[in-house]
Each structure stands twice: as C-alpha cells, then as structure tokens.
Amino acid sequence: MKPLKIVAVSAGLSRPSSTRLLADRLAEATRRILAEEAPVEVRVIELRELASDIADNLVTGFPAAPLREAIEAVTEADGLIAVTPIFTASYSGLFKSFFDVIDNTALTGKPVLIAATGGTARHSLALEHAMRPLFSYLRALVVPTAVFAASEDWGTAGDERTDGLSDRITRASRELADLTRRHPAAVSASAQIDEVIPFEQQLAALRP
Asked: What DSSP line would sit under 132-199, residue for residue?
C-alpha cells in the first residue's frame, strides 16, 4: 500500500521554537491516527532554513534546489499542516512568502490543518481572519478546528470554557486524518506537465 504523505510547514524563527514544537505534535497526532489503517510518511519543513531561497525566488522567479524540493513536498502531500507564529495580528512574512512562491492552484482540494503560536490568546483570532482566508483563496480544504497555542497553553488542561491544547491537537488531527483519507493527493505538477500533449501534435491533429 502506498504510504500517505503528511507534510508540516513550520515558520518558526527561533531554535528551539514553540512553532516547530506545535508542528511536531500535530504531525505526530495525525500520523498516529492514520497509521491505524495505512502506512504514513511525515516530513516537517523548517522555513527558516529556506528564508534566503524564498527571497531569491520572489525576485528572480526561479527556486533553488532546496526550495523546489520543499515546494514539491507540499504540493504532493496528501495532507498539509501549516503553522506560523503570529506577528502584528497576522501570520509571519516568511510564512506568507513561502506560499506566495507556490502556484496558486497547487493546493486545490488539499486537506490543510492551520495552526499558530503567540504570546497571548489575543492573537488567536488571526487564525480566522488571516490564515483561513489565505487557504480558502488557494482553494484548499481547511479543517474546522484551528489550533492556537499561547505561552500559557503549554502543559495546561484548559478551563470550563475551552479544551486544553492536547485536546485541540487531537481533535484537529483527527479532522485532518478524516479528510486525508477521503481526498487523496492530486497528480503532482511535474506529472501533469508530462501528460500535456505537445503543441505540434495538436496542430497535426487539426490538419486535413
């Protein structure tokens, strides 16, 4: 059986990073759920390692090999986890720039779990007013539960009005797993290019 591919994108800037930690926990929870029925491959992409390549790509239009490989991993994934720190009430510039260099049709129909980290819970609204619209514009299938982790969320069980971080991770990961099972990855861009009929052949078909 072909393994399901889960890719997590982390836009954390520091090392260690709470953003990377959240990406790892979401990826592992999703892997554990999917592994009950099928083999699973998980990859985490650290955008901080690709920052220079992303900037060069925005200017030149050509991705360096490491960035091209990361883009291919994202576009060919069966399920995507996108995690960013929140700066000034929105996703980070590095996070947005990475998705700017991906073709805006490449994520069509792809299951996506959105998540973010920030200093206080006040930043959690950015998931709904910034991140969800971004992936809706890209025509991805965004799971209902978005996961935000403020500094005080780590190691807590929530309160009478909210679930703890572990519960939110489990719920969102289960939603991503369910969507991933129902929506296998589309054919990769490179495979689609190989299937295009050459222009000369199309012209020949029109001649009497």
From this structure: HHHHHHTT-EE-S--EEEEGGGTT--B-SSSB-HHHHHHHHHHHHHHHHHHSPPPPPHHHHHHTSPPH
Secondary structure of 26-95 in the HEC alphabet?
HHHHHHHHHCCCCCEEEEEEEHHHHHHHHHHHHHHCCCCHHHHHHHHHHHHCCEEEEEEEEECCEECHHH
Digit-coded pLDDT (tens) for 72-113? 999 999 999 999 999 988 999 999 999 999 999 999 999 999
Q: What span, in angstroms and rounded, lies between the C-alpha atoms of 182 and 136? A: 18
Domains in the chain with CATH codes: 4-206 (3.40.50.360)
